[in-house]
Request: fold
Amino acid sequence: MTNNNLICDLETGVCGVAGDNEMEIIDLNQTSKKIDLYYVTDPICSHCWAIEPTLRRFMKQYGQYFNFKTVMGGLLEKWHGGPVDPANGIHGPTDVAGHWREVGEHSRMPIDGSLMIDNPVQSSFPPSRVYKIIQKHHGEEKAFEFLRRARENLFVFNKNIGEAPVLTEIVNAMELDGEGIVKEANEQTGHELLNEDFILTRNLGARGFPTIIMVNEENKGVKIVGGRPFDNYVAGLTQALGEDPIPKQQPALSTLLEEEKLLFAKEIEGMYDVEKSDIHAFVEKELSPNSYQVKEILGESYFTSLK
Reply:
């Protein structure tokens, strides 16, 4: 049998066997459609902290179907003499403390809240601007990591993320230039980038946090406001796509914990459909003893990676 694959045809310009067509359209994408998902949020939004278990699983299992875009919404510019959110009984920082504790107890994503009595965050704009600077220089994924670390520090470990030293410490711990990033965030660039997000928030019609908006190429889709069950986000994605999405398998817990660094029991339960009473047995089965530490805070267990 003769092998002609080394013979190049001078007319077709093909080495080997030429196809029937000079040009054909192909699609090597695993998914036939992709949508834009806008997550409108704020660093001090307690309900945004509460939906982290649901949102993470949604991103891990269905992220192949959407371009994820986080948008800073500007929850608190500053406290002033009048009520900030009278509809929800928020007149000052001390009112926030009680509300946060309720959200933490209901969601089981721990929130201390006493910071808002002892040393309240005066504005959510400083951490929002830091987010935008990290996003500009280091991309969406690194900025999203900062948002997670900022919320851990605020809600769980009671640190004031409105203060420059705390923000610098958080960014440094991510092995970035904390001082430089926080400095740039307070300059004109930081203000301009954050204002762009505020304009986008208004254009998207988002007035509460969290808001998740999924739109297709025809700019049609769904808007989901507030914390909702996992199935609601899958249903919204299905509607925006116009077809049933196929979920990926959840990542191994060892992979997830190494990536996330810290996970609360509720987050592991939500990712793997584990009952609260079975969480420790599940973790012991999935992880090697020397790869993690388990601690407790505010009545909830959390697990940190030792890798």
Remarks:
- The chain has two domains: 35-204, 253-305.
- The mean pLDDT is 90.
- The beta strands are 35-41, 66-72, 211-215, 221-225, 262-264, 292-297, 300-305.
- The CA atoms of residues 290 and 306 lie 7 Å apart.
